[in-house]
Amino acid sequence: MADSDPAVYSASACPGLLATTARGIRSNTKLIALLSIWAGGLGVTALRWVADRYGLSSALWISALMPLLAFATTRFLPAPRVHEAR
Asked: Is the pTM of the predicted complex or chain greater than 0.70?
């Protein structure tokens, strides 16, 4: 089973991006945190535009359906690789 720690998962999901030393894992965690904050800001901006244009109920329906969309997209993620001990 994969580790539930985001730092370990992000380091194993993109191993060539940053070094997997202790400093690299911290940098990877910062990168994942910054990307999630950036994506959240874009999502809030888009939902505000939908609420202004089509009404609050449309924006609430979209935000209620977002977890289902996230679940559907995670079904296409590759299985985590298991590294053998050396």
From this structure: no
